[in-house]
Design goal:
This protein is mainly α. The chain is about 65% helix and about 0% strand. It has a two-stranded antiparallel ribbon. The model has no long low-confidence stretch (mean pLDDT about 95). It binds benzoyl coenzyme A. The site of benzoyl coenzyme A has 28 residues, from helix 2, helix 6 and helix 9. It is an enzyme of class 1 (oxidoreductase). It comes from Kibdelosporangium banguiense. GO terms for molecular function: phenylacetyl-CoA 1,2-epoxidase activity. Pfam families: PaaA_PaaC (PF05138).
Length: about 300
């Protein structure tokens, strides 16, 4: 069997493609693009919540937030490693990110104005991430699918910590309840945008579904997230900021309002509220870390020399 037939048969049998296997160049390129964007999102995603570590309202909340932000760094590291198994170079990926040549999720370009944002990010942003990533545990590329299993377990814990934080705030003062509602109003629509453009405009979905990199389309997952979030909002006692949101018995799903795709495109192309600061902080961290990379390389060279 030739290499391409073997690849197609592996995908058709629902088995995994591993780093040693032959794969079409398009598959490799698509995987590197998605895994790198995902890794960048985890790393840039540390910033909005990280802004609250020094201002968390109690020692317990600070410890929880610190652990969560640290988990996101871990996710980024597994994912950069997965990208390396495809032949990508991590230094090159980092440079692409800080030079604005590679994307990261639109959701991390919004400010976190109050501590309720930390809870809403856990509830909605991690909730959307789980919705999107659980099917990726069955993605056809082995190292990505396996990284996703661990990431999803941690994301699920993150989602619960966010919801618990919000439940606590909702049983507090009116001012605290208002903060939760305000944060929900600001994060709801950007969370729906996390799933990517509508299917009709999604350049990559058809091919990625055929290769079983993606298991569901952007719109399918967005709908699943809306259906999942409505009862959670009710239980919490907040209103989702969409007057058109209502149950459609015929479809067996909630209908919802039009998403502002013009705004989405602006954010993705670098013009969202916080794009500039997110990238410049990442660049500074990379530059500040140069001495660590140099020291690690010098130490590795020394050990190699000693071993020889
Ligand atoms: N933001 O053809 P499409 C987290 C891009 S982090 C920016 O539908 P695809 C967390 C898309 O990449 C979780 N760009 O693409 C961390 C493509 O770009 P190219 C992040 C977006 O790949 C810290 C173009 O638009 N999750 O959970 O088939 C704290 C056309 O789109 C976005 C992942 O990365 C967006 N929202 O589908 C808390 C999940 N949407 O071709 C939480 C993995 C689309 O110009 N990724 N684009 O380079 C995926 O599942 C898929 O890549 C997507 C997009 C569903 C996002």
């Amino acid at each position: 069997m030739d290499l391409e037939q073997h690849f197609d048969a592996t995908i058709a049998r629902d088995q995994r493609i591993e780093p040693r296997d032959w794969m079409p160049e398009g598959y490799r390129k698509t995987m590197i693009r998605q895994v790198a964007q995902h890794a960048h999102s985890e790393i840039i995603g540390m910033q909005p919540e990280g802004d609250w570590i020094t201002r968390a309202p109690s020692l317990r909340r600070k410890a929880v937030l610190l652990a969560k932000v640290q988990d996101e760094a871990g996710h980024g590291l597994y994912l950069y490693s997965a990208a390396e198994t495809l032949g990508a170079d991590r230094t090159d990926l980092t440079e692409r990110l800080i030079e604005g040549r590679q994307k990261y999720s639109s959701i991390f370009n919004y400010p976190t104005l109050t501590f309720a944002d930390v809870g809403v990010i856990g509830w909605l942003v991690d909730g959307a991430a789980i919705c999107n990533q659980v099917p990726l545990c069955r993605s056809s590329y082995g190292p990505y699918a396996r990284a996703m299993i661990r990431i999803c377990k941690e994301e699920s814990f993150h989602q619960r910590q966010g919801y618990e934080l919000l439940m606590t705030m909702m049983s507090g003062t009116q001012a605290q309840r208002d903060m939760v509602q305000d944060a929900t109003n600001r994060w709801w629509w950007p969370s729906l945008m996390m799933f990517g453009p509508p299917d009709a405009e999604s350049a990559n979905t058809a091919q990625s579904m055929a290769w079983k990199i993606k298991r569901h389309t952007n719109d399918e997952l967005r709908q699943r997230f809306v259906d999942m979030s409505v009862p959670q909002a009710e239980k919490l006692g907040v209103t989702l900021p969409d007057p058109e949101l209502k149950w459609n018995a015929e479809r067996g799903h909630h209908d919802f309002g039009e998403i502002d795709w013009v705004h989405f495109k602006q954010v993705v192309s670098g013009n969202g509220p916080c794009n500039a600061i997110r990238v410049s902080r990442r660049r500074k961290a990379h530059e500040d870390g140069e001495w660590v990379r140099e020291a690690a390389a010098a130490y590795a060279a020394k050990r190699k020399e000693a071993a020889a």
